[in-house]
């Protein structure tokens, strides 16, 4: 039976979560985090 | 280099934090969200007339006869006080005409904001325009989706969209959660709509206060070939204007004045366009699609629309506009530029000119449906 070290498991989970967040950032408009007006910048 | 985490426990706690943040919209659900009014009172003037929308949707009561709703082309396209005055004269009572406008094209914004409006006020006629703007291709989701899309409130609207688009809206709700939590703890104070010192449109864009214009944005800026270098503004009214009779309401008799591009809207845009129309039908609203011409259309002898909207959306939608070539007939190129503040938006001159010509057609459509 494969034994997984808890530290390794946590790191895998962190990598998966990071990839999910990275994917969400890539598919979403870049201005999501910018919040500037669309057609006319002040 | 030191490791990122000094212990496995610390790494596990960080993973739990990330996981919790990603699941926050699901955890909050609907019951733990602050009232939707807090969304609008959190968005300041720079992104649209949101302080005014807040007051109109959630505070003012009473039915609305005509609501102009949409992004910046209609926000700047119509002189709302003029339309209200004309409709009041026609009805023999004080009419209620408002403009609900914001920055940034896209049908998702149109749907979600219309949904909030129609849940709080009865609107007899909704006048909108095709917010799919080729000159400024709208992104899906709209960049303000983290503000007004909340998973607990609006998840059912995503049904039918692709997984990627749904994930993007979910991410928008994740990004919006901290602000929602803050509004839960410390609700926003009501905005002073007439505090001009904080209204960027009045200060920087030489606009009349939208709150005083029944929501319309009326900019006193000259034309800018390249933003933000506007020419000096001069009051101008065409000496030989077009006639209101040049306005066209689509019918078998006038169909030669229209041209339908036959293009496919992106699926997500079409999805929300359909939902907007279904929403209007469910609330018994008359729908009018108004064509607001941009500068690049100035020589067009026809009114160009992307789609034949009644067929595409399976709804009774009146379509109205003025062929740009007729609107700008007898005007020199310089005269036409005096009506615009940039490639796509009327200034005060253009707004007044366009409104006086299109209003009789709008009122005739209102009259037909509301007898």
Task: Write out key terms for the chains shown.
heterodimer; A: 42 residues; mainly alpha; 1 helix; 52% helix; 0% strand; rod-shaped; disordered C terminus; B: 371 residues; alpha/beta; Rossmann fold; 6-stranded mixed β-sheet; two-stranded antiparallel sheet; 15 helices; globular
Provide a brief overview of the structure:
The complex is a heterodimer of chains A (42) and B (371). With 42 residues, chain A is mainly alpha-helical. Chain A is 52% helix and 0% strand.
Describe this protein's structure.
The complex is a heterodimer of chains A (42) and B (371). Chain A has 42 residues and is mostly helical. Chain A has one helix and no strands. In chain A, 12% of the residues are buried. The radius of gyration of chain B is 22 Å and the shape is globular. Chain B has a six-stranded mixed β-sheet with strand order 2-1-3-8-10-6, sandwiched between helices. A two-stranded antiparallel sheet of chain B has the order 4-5. By secondary structure, chain B is α/β, with parallel strands linked by helices. Chain B has one domain: Rossmann fold, CATH 3.40.50. In chain B, 47% of the residues are buried. Chain B starts with 7 loop residues before the first helix and ends with a helix. Chain B has 15 helices and ten strands. Chains A and B meet through α1 of A and α1 and α9 of B.
